[in-house]
Amino acid sequence: MTTAATLETFLAANSDVIACELTSVRGSSPREEGTFMLVALGAIFGTIGGGALEYMVIDHARRLIAEGRAEAAMDVPLGPEIGQCCGGRVKVGLRYADAVIRRDLMARVEAEVASTPQVYVFGAGHVGRALAQILSVLPVRMEVIDTRQDELDQLPPGIAHRRVAMPEAVVRSAPEGSSFLIMTHDHALDFLIAAEALNRLDSPYVGMVGSKTKRAKFASWFVEQGGDKALLSRLVLPIGAQGLGDKRPSVIAVLAAAEVMVQIGEREASNGRTPTPGKQGVASGF
Fold first, then answer.
1. Residue limits of CATH 3.40.50.720 in the chain
2. Can you spell out the DSSP letters for the chain?
3. Domain 118-270 coded CATH 3.90.79.10
């Protein structure tokens, strides 16, 4: 996921940058209006969809830099003329990224990150580590929670994590709309976390690693503890099953990540917000 830090690093490393934004989209297009990419002579940040359109925009942007021009506009049909078959038409605004535009870009990315759905992974074991790596490149904010520092230390660099003595408390304080994936080393702890998560009716996804037997045991325990039986329908257990029965951590992680993204997208759609995974820029116009 694009962050303010990655954008800041790119801008700091490149003095001459052209900001290229889809200012108008008609019909089918690889990306949405407002999506932007940045082009420097030797580097690219972001994407407006790839393919022939992107190559054309990159070439045009680099000509602007070479010629010392500040801005231009392109009107491109996404059809046989350029070797694409989307069938739509886009307009692209290209502007030299001066100090004002750079500040605007930073603000846009910061606003997008702030509105990005939060996902918590409870447990930094084999599945948790694999899942964290996958989620780290998706349009979500993700944090790994564990009671064991030695497991957290095995996470790849850059993965947000926290050692917490009582992980279930994290659920109670999580931002609205958070999703929870539960895979700790302790079944009793899994149950405590899941019970808290199921009571978060704002959560798009609550999932737990396990089996049908574990689900039955949790359901019995949850009801005995006074939990609402109706809430059990919200629990995905086992996560990442998809009828495959594959127990390899990496496969479970990929399928679980897909489940989470589908549920987040459906929740956003039901709330009247169109999900735009990976879109860089929250408003049109620099």
1. 118-270
2. ---HHHHHHHHHH-SS-EEEEEEEEES--SS-TT-EEEE-SS-EES-S--HHHHHHHHHHHHHHHHHT--EEEEEEE-SGGGT-----EEEEEEEE--HHHHHHHHHHHHHHHHTSPEEEEE--SHHHHHHHHHHTTSSSEEEEEES-HHHHTTSPTT--EEE-S-THHHHHHSPTT-EEEE--S-HHHHHHHHHHHHT-TT-S-EEE---HHHHHHHHHHHHHTT--GGGGGGEE-STT-TTT----HHHHHHHHHHHHHHHHHHHHHHTT----TT---SSS--
3. no
